[in-house]
Amino acid sequence: MNEYVIGIDIGSSKIYAAVGKIDSEENLQIMGISSSKCEGLNKGIVIDIESTAKSIEKCKGQLQKMVEQDFNSAYLVVPGGICDLIESKGVVAVSALENTVTHKDKDRAIEASKFISITSDKEIIGVIPQDYVIDECDKIKDPVGMCGNKLEANVKVVTARSSVINNLIKSVEAAGLTVKGLELKPIAAASVVLSQEEKKFGAALVDVGAETIDLSVFSNGKLCYTSIIPFGGKAITNDLSVGLKVSMDEAENMKLKYGTLKKDVSNETFTCNNISGEFIEVKHGFLVDIIEARVSELLEFIKAELEKSGYEKSIERVILVGGGITLFKGIKDVGEEILNKPVRIGLPDYIGAASPLFSNVVGVLKNAIDENNKSSNRKNVVSDFIDDDLYDDEDDEIYAERKGLAKRIKNIFSNLFS
């Protein structure tokens, strides 16, 4: 695979894009990463397609300059917090000779699991297999090649509001790119920041953005819980703006330049412009107090959400990604004190991309390349629940609209969820 692969992460208020390709040793090589602020988003949901498209186009232009090549398609990550995970089961009879489970049987069981009832405003966008059962033998990781009469697939069906997904896709298309595939952010990030042991024995992946916190729990090697907290790092910026009487831009600059949770510099001072344009002197200790108070509150929200998930006791470690609080010195110690769990910052192990800011966009590139390698050996089998044959009345506008969206998504969602 010699062509470039593009990944896009549309966050709370900023868009990240990355370009990569396979090197001579068949490993992903990150060729460049770009970012752009975006005013067309509200808590990770597109509210202005034109504005969002312009930010995506800006990222695309930066990447094209880096590698001196034009792009016409990209892979997109979808926030886990806007999706629902619904437990389901697909049951089929083993159809192969000698009652041996084949890939086709496995695929049929997964497909059967999608026949669930959902509201008219939602779409099934993927399936996350958990395990399989052959006759009376359960907790099977991969049933292919085993013998039996009946195969069951225990899965989590991923659903999301059609309008949210559609607006994400339209924003990318308006920037001159075709969406080749979509993947949940937690699955993307987990592929590059979580170890197999962490996913197996229990880990919480916490993506802190500007306006939202996406919280996901992994156990037994699978994603088992997602939720969204409607607060993020922007709350810290707002506190600094109010507390120091400076503009939001000035507060953001101060946060990035001087922000820390360490109080060893509490006696130092620095100057900045207030809202009247006058220079003021600020004690670093005062800045730290404001930041620490809000970070502690955000961590308390995370702790409460972990308890609400029902998986709190099985979580062995918390991994922080995103840019909302991860870049503050001392965040690990404060996090462990409040969460009562070991905490670390998730860093993709790629040259030029070793930052918690890039976990999602690097992860989707890695998984897209892995998926393409799988597809070269075996046809992709995860299709959309809504098939063309399910609707015969072409005159029904509602059905026609859903059929059109489903057909679109059918060609977009790949087997990245499995």
From TrEMBL:
CDD domains: ASKHA_NBD_FtsA. The keyword Membrane applies. It comes from the Bacteria. Its main location: membrane. Residues 5-193 form the SHS2 domain. InterPro entries: ATPase_NBD, Cell_div_FtsA, FtsA/MreB, SHS2_FtsA. The keyword Cell cycle applies. Keywords: Cell cycle, Cell division, Cell membrane, Membrane. GO terms for biological process: FtsZ-dependent cytokinesis. One of its GO terms (cellular component) is cytoplasmic side of plasma membrane. It is a peripheral membrane protein. Gene3D superfamilies: 3.30.1490.110, 3.30.420.40. It is found in: Cell membrane. Cell division protein that is involved in the assembly of the Z ring. May serve as a membrane anchor for the Z ring. Belongs to the FtsA/MreB family. Self-interacts. Interacts with FtsZ. PANTHER family: CELL DIVISION PROTEIN FTSA, CELL DIVISION PROTEIN FTSA-RELATED. This is Cell division protein FtsA. The gene is ftsA.
